[in-house]
Amino acid sequence: MEKQVEKITSRDVDFAKWYTDVCKVADLVDYGNVKGSMIIRPYGYAIWEQMTSVLDKEFKKLGHENVQMPMFIPESLLNIEKEHVEGFAPEVAWVTYGGKEKLEERMCVRPTSETLFCEHFKKIIKSYRDLPLLYNQWCTIVRWEKTTRPFLRSREILWQEGHTMHATEEEARNETLQMLKVYEDFQRNYLAIPVFVGRKSEKEKFAGAKETYSIEAMMYDGVALQNGTSHYFGQDFAKAFDIKFLDKDNTLKTPYQTSWGCTTRMIGALIMTHSDDRGLVLPPNIAPYKVCLIPIGNDEKVTNTLNTLKEELDSKNITYKVLDDDKTPGFKFAEAEVKGYPIRIEIGKRDLENNNVTLVRRDTLDKIIVNKDEAIDILPILLDTIQSDMYNKALKRRNKMIYETDNYEEFKELATKPGFIKVNWCGRTECEDKVKEDTGLKTRCTIMDEKASGKCPICGHDATCKIYFGKQY
Amino acid sequence: MEKQVEKITSRDVDFAKWYTDVCKVADLVDYGNVKGSMIIRPYGYAIWEQMTSVLDKEFKKLGHENVQMPMFIPESLLNIEKEHVEGFAPEVAWVTYGGKEKLEERMCVRPTSETLFCEHFKKIIKSYRDLPLLYNQWCTIVRWEKTTRPFLRSREILWQEGHTMHATEEEARNETLQMLKVYEDFQRNYLAIPVFVGRKSEKEKFAGAKETYSIEAMMYDGVALQNGTSHYFGQDFAKAFDIKFLDKDNTLKTPYQTSWGCTTRMIGALIMTHSDDRGLVLPPNIAPYKVCLIPIGNDEKVTNTLNTLKEELDSKNITYKVLDDDKTPGFKFAEAEVKGYPIRIEIGKRDLENNNVTLVRRDTLDKIIVNKDEAIDILPILLDTIQSDMYNKALKRRNKMIYETDNYEEFKELATKPGFIKVNWCGRTECEDKVKEDTGLKTRCTIMDEKASGKCPICGHDATCKIYFGKQY
Q1: DSSP E strands, B167-290
Q2: Predicted confidence (pLDDT) at residue B8 exceeds the cutoff of 80
Q3: Are strands A224-234 and A256-263 parallel, antiparallel or unpaired?
Q4: H or E element that contains A195
């Protein structure tokens, strides 16, 4: 195992390399032989299952139902909404043959499913009684990327896409913001990631949307990771697809639409927010195994204590992993650290002479020696403490990397540092383009609870909003 | 709603039409606009979620871990195992373009993933310590079908595929049979479907497998539905992919492989086994909602009783649906029947004068008038009774449609009737081909617990096994 830990490049030496090392050494992913393809291994998939099970329950609580749409979109269907097709056509995979037969019309593998949902909605929406329609789909999508970074960029992405239709604009707008809040709460409370939520600029919004809202997290290296989006479509798609409903007042109306999605990128965010040079550090609320039990030696007392602890954990429904093969204790400690189990319990003969076991927190590596009969009782509180400590640590680090300025020269200087820059902004694409050219930074999202005041530092026009700029993954 | 029920063709008039009517009217599926494509609607998907959640737990209990492999297989990779590519190449979808660029090598969308798993196994299997490798994947696969029948035949299929590697032949053979048993128990205990399990003939086995075992159910019309398969591969794929492990005795060995899968076909089997001219009939153990509550009229006492019953159901974790909109009682009863909720509870003013509510079993349509305070208490027993009654009814019907003969002339006569024919068989493909030509019947599966005795009625050679013949979906 020492060999394995050696394989992790230091985070402060080469962050990109450190990230891919952690993904590989913690057995989260493997690369397929084809460029751009990725295999999610059991431990990586278990983290995704933790995420999907929490989110799926939240979605259902709010009345959403899961469906499964086809994965292929005929070219003519993709073409129906103009902005949408322009945004996606350059990056889709095209199926042209079925067996030996050339298809009359080629089809792409869905890069997203607005068009498929709209085609279905047209058939099933007749009356106001059919609204709101609150659908969600768990599936994979394909975007023909040329580079691969585990969980961040690959040809095939596991995700969830919500698609909803509403009788009124107000209701659709509320849905857009409600689902943004679901993502925000999930990331804060489960992933222990402090996030900004706000509106994307005109330039950065989703192809075909009226408004896009996003979740923006700042990674350890100060770079932004967009981590969930929620779109308000207005009636554009509905009009393009001729979707109408008979309202209570007996007139035909066009419904209002939203969509929202999040992906395995959240696993990337999790890693790049919390993990360190020893490997993964997982927040207890999302860790597939909360505890790792490590018996040291073959002593009978050790085995008995191990068995008692396992029973107690089972009875308290606390998930755990046991490392009880014939490897050395040092190897096992390193293994537990690489995998990021929030707490490891070392069960050793010497400790047991005093009726003790040793608990080690993965986030701080602090050791706590406790009576073996009390070890399991203190776990719930300790796990909660780790969860909130991890959030606070990430929040403190992030806040140190947020700068504010009303001067463009200073802006350009700040742009050389890692982090986000907060400015008043005019909202015009020209200024975004200029910043991109001068510094490489892009807009992240507007600051929803702060009003604009003063001038845009880039062009001097009146500001219309406050916004974050930052580099992005 | 009466209108909706009218839409269901009678099962005894046109079984095929009845089936698709039930799928549509119960809101299980919709057709996509593209030939061969299918949309699984919320109620259909909820049934699939019931199935996947039970099976996923069973798989994990037995040590299997979920992974996610890429969906694209490069042509050269598909070509590695000869029999396999011959079986699948004619029915795959080929991706030839990524965005505007023609691919150097075309890729198919996975029709099954043996080749992808083997490529990954080659990388991660080094030593006996890495075995057994017990993997499973939930995903969709594509086979370029020209016809669509909901859940039975469509271009894209939701399924689960297990892929395992073992150090010894015995262990791999045990795994093949163990997973067959998991499917069998699931279908008996949850879907209330009596099934035969046995080995497929040489002709009917999976492309590339040494042995294929299958689950064979007989539908209401006497036609067979293959409903889950488990394959033993021996070392053929492992050799083709050059997968080796260092065994305890320090020599390099080739591992033994299995795969096993089941699909949304099980929803088709569920419908064609139990449902009737009024719509779905779902066994309680798999129904997304066990109970349907129907308040009749706007009376305060009715509303209070409804609320009390809801609370009691919640506290007992019994899932339910409430039909409390402004439609007529007759409409709601028909709606509850179409959807196949195992029990509906009618809450009416007149019944309540005697403190009663009316329970109606979906499977028998029997009415049971009970004191409202006892209604929920009797549900668990009533649901169990419905579950076993449904199984027994299906079993009785199936057993009536099984014939046995040792005379080929009689065989050909029996072949005109719905059902299966049980015979001693020589095991030779020539005889299968002859039966297919003479009668349209194919072999289903061998009878594992009965030994062959006597001659094959088709050719007169010595029999090597007993087997079922039948028509198939």
Answers
A1: 195-199, 211-218, 224-234, 245-246, 252-253, 256-263
A2: yes
A3: antiparallel
A4: strand A195-199
Partners of residue B260 on adjacent β-strands: B162, B230
B321 touches chain A (CB under 8 A): no
Residue of B461, B429, B466 whose CA lies nearest to B450: B466
CB A339 within 8 A of CB A43: yes
Sheet holding A156-166, edge to edge: A65-66, A133-142, A156-166, A256-263, A224-234, A211-218, A195-199
List residues bridging with B216 in a β-sheet.
B196, B226
- For chain B, what percent of residues have pLDDT higher than 90? 92
CATH architecture of A2-274: 2-Layer Sandwich (3.30)
Residue B5 has pLDDT above 80, yes or no: no
B381–A contact, CB cutoff 8 A: no
Average pLDDT over residues B386-398: 98
Q: Which residues on chain B are in Cβ contact (under 8 Å) with A120?
A: 30, 32, 39
- What is the rounded CA–CA span in Å between residue B268 and residue B18? 12
CA–CA gap between residue B87 and residue B461 (Å, rounded): 30
Centre a 10 Å sphere on the Cβ of residue B286 and count the other Cβ atoms it contains. 21
Query: At A49, phi and psi to the nearest 5?
Result: -65, -35
Tokens of A128: 């106001």
Closest partner CB to A144 (pick from B39, B99, B109): B99
**The whole model's pTM is what?**
0.96
**Interchain contact, B90 vs A99, CB within 8 Å:** yes
DSSP assignment of A104-146 equals EEEEEEPSS-HHHHHHHHHHH--BGGG-SEEEEEEEEEE---S
Contact present, A108 and A72 (Cβ < 8 Å): yes
- In CATH, what class is B8-274? alpha beta
Rounded Cα distance between A363 and A385, Å, is 11
Q: Provide the shortest C-alpha distance from residue A50 to chain B (in Å).
A: 12
Residues of chain A with pLDDT under 70: 1-6
Q: Does domain B291-386 fall into CATH 3.40.50.800?
A: yes
Sole residue written with tokens 């349907």 = B292
- Whether residue B51 lies within 8 A of chain A, CB to CB, comes out as no
Each residue's pLDDT tens digit, A238-278:
999 999 999 999 999 999 999 999 999 999 999 999 999 99
What's the token pair of residue A181?
């809040």
- Topology of A291-385 in CATH? Rossmann fold (3.40.50)
* CA R_g for chain B: 25
pLDDT in tens, A301-345: 999 999 999 999 999 999 999 999 888 999 999 999 999 999 999
The helix/strand count (H/E) of chain A reads as 15, 23
Within a 10 A sphere around the Cβ of A105, how many other Cβ atoms? 10
pLDDT digits (tens, 9 = 90+) for B418-466: 999 999 999 999 999 999 999 999 999 999 999 999 999 999 999 999 9
* B92 part of contact set with chain A, CB < 8 Å: yes
Residue B39 is nearest to which of A30, A67, A91, comparing CB atoms?
Answer: A67
Beta bridge partners of A161: A137, A261
pLDDT of residue A6: 62
Residues in chain A: 473
Architecture (CATH level 2) of domain A402-470? 2-Layer Sandwich (3.30)
Q: How confident is the model at residue B374 (pLDDT cuts 50, 70, 90)?
A: very high
∠ CA A157-A162-A166, rounded to 5°: 155
Please tell me which residue of chain A has the smallest CA distance to B92.
Answer: A99
Task: Show me where the domains of chain A are located.
Answer: 2-274, 291-385, 402-470
The pLDDT, as a whole number, for residue B118 is: 97
Pairing of strands B402-404, B420-425: parallel
pLDDT per residue as tens digits for the range B41-54: 999 999 999 999 99
